[in-house]
C-alpha cells in the first residue's frame, strides 16, 4: 500500500511539473509576442489642420505592433513636407490618407493646387464664350470683355472691347453629365481659373456689367501683350512676360 501512495505522489509531482512547464512556456510566448515593437510616426505636439508638417513637428517612435494603425506612416520622409487635412493631437499616429501634398488636388481638393497669392474663381461659359468646349484643365486663357469702362474722372465711358486679364491657368472645367439617351457630346458650363485678387475684381466687374469671352492661348505661350482697347480710348502699359506655370498676369 505504501508503494501505491508513493507512486501516486510521484505521478502527481510529475504532472504538476509538466503543467507548470507548459504554463511557463505559454507565458513566455505571450510575453515575447507582447514585446514585438514597430516604428510609427507621431505628432510631438498638437498640429492644427492644413499645416505644412516640418521635421520638428513629428517623431519616429517604437510602439507594440498590435497598437500601430495599418494606415500610419512608418518613416519621417512620408510625412515631412506634407499638409495634414485634419487636426492632429500630441502623440497621435499620423495616417497617410489624411495627408495631402502641395500641388496635388486629391479628391477635388482644389485649395492644395493654388499657388501663394492666387485664388480660384469659377465663371459661367457657353459654347461661344468657352471656345466651343476646347478649353481643358491645364490650359491658359485670356479674358476679353465688351464693357463700358468708367472714365478717369468717374464719368461713364464709352463701350469698348478690352482684354481684362491674360495668361490665366485653367484649374478645372465643370462638366455637365448627360443622360445615357442623350446623343450629343457633353460640355462644360463653367471653368475655374487661378487668378490674383486684383484680377478677380476685374473678372467679377465685367461678368456683372458686361460680357466676357475666354481666348485659348497656345501651349508654352505666356507672353503678356496688353493690347489697346477697341475702339481706342487710351494706351495700356505692357507688362513683362509671365512664364511661371500656375500663375496668371493681368493687364
What kind of assembly state do the chains in view correspond to? single chain
Radius of gyration: 34 Å
**Percent helix:** 10-25%
Q: Which series of helices and strands comes N to C?
A: HEEEEEEEEEHEE
Shape descriptor: rod-shaped
Through-space gap between termini: 116 Å
Low-pLDDT windows of residues: 176-185, 235-247
The number of distinct β-strands equals 11
Percentage of β-strand residues: 25-35%
Mean pLDDT: 79
Count helical runs.
2
Counting helices, strands and paired strands, the structural category is alpha+beta
Biggest beta-sheet profile: 6 strands, antiparallel
Topology:
Blueprint: H1 2-34, E1 37-43, E2 51-52, E3 58-64, E4 83-84, E5 99-100, E6 119-124, E7 140-150, E8 156-175, E9 188-195, H2 197-209, E10 211-216, E11 249-250
Antiparallel strand pairs: 1-3, 2-4, 4-5, 6-9, 7-8, 7-10, 8-9, 8-11
Structure description:
This protein is an alpha+beta fold and 251 residues long. Helix content is 18%, strand content 29%. The strands form three sheets. Strands 6, 7, 8, 9, 10 and 11 form a six-stranded antiparallel β-sheet that branches. A three-stranded antiparallel β-sheet has the order 2-4-5, with no helix packed on it. The protein starts with a helix and ends with a strand.
For this entry, give a set of tags.
six-stranded antiparallel beta sheet; 2 helices; about 250 residues; alpha+beta; single chain; three-stranded antiparallel beta sheet
Amino acid at each position: 500500500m505504501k508503494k501505491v501512495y508513493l507512486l501516486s505522489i510521484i505521478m502527481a509531482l510529475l504532472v504538476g511539473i509538466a503543467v507548470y512547464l507548459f504554463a511557463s512556456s505559454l507565458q513566455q510566448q505571450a510575453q515575447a509576442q507582447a514585446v514585438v515593437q514597430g516604428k510609427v510616426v507621431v505628432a510631438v505636439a498638437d498640429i492644427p489642420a492644413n499645416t505644412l508638417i516640418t521635421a520638428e513637428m513629428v517623431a519616429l517612435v517604437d510602439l507594440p505592433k498590435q497598437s500601430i494603425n495599418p494606415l500610419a506612416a512608418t518613416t519621417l520622409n512620408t510625412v515631412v513636407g506634407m499638409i495634414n487635412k485634419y487636426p492632429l493631437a500630441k502623440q497621435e499616429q499620423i495616417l497617410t490618407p489624411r495627408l495631402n501634398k502641395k500641388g496635388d488636388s486629391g479628391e477635388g481638393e482644389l485649395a492644395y493646387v493654388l499657388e501663394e497669392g492666387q485664388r480660384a474663381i469659377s465663371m459661367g461659359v457657353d459654347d461661344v464664350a468657352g471656345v466651343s468646349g476646347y478649353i481643358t484643365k491645364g490650359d491658359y486663357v485670356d479674358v476679353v470683355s465688351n464693357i463700358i469702362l468708367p472714365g478717369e474722372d468717374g464719368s461713364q465711358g464709352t463701350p469698348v472691347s478690352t482684354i481684362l486679364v491674360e495668361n490665366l491657368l485653367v484649374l478645372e472645367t465643370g462638366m455637365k453629365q448627360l443622360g445615357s439617351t442623350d446623343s450629343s457630346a457633353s460640355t462644360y458650363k463653367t471653368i475655374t481659373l487661378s487668378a490674383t485678387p486684383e484680377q478677380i475684381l476685374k473678372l467679377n466687374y465685367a461678368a456683372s456689367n458686361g460680357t466676357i469671352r475666354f481666348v485659348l492661348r497656345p501651349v508654352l505661350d505666356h507672353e503678356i501683350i496688353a493690347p489697346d482697347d477697341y475702339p481706342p480710348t487710351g494706351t495700356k502699359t505692357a507688362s513683362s512676360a509671365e512664364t511661371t506655370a500656375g500663375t496668371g498676369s493681368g493687364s
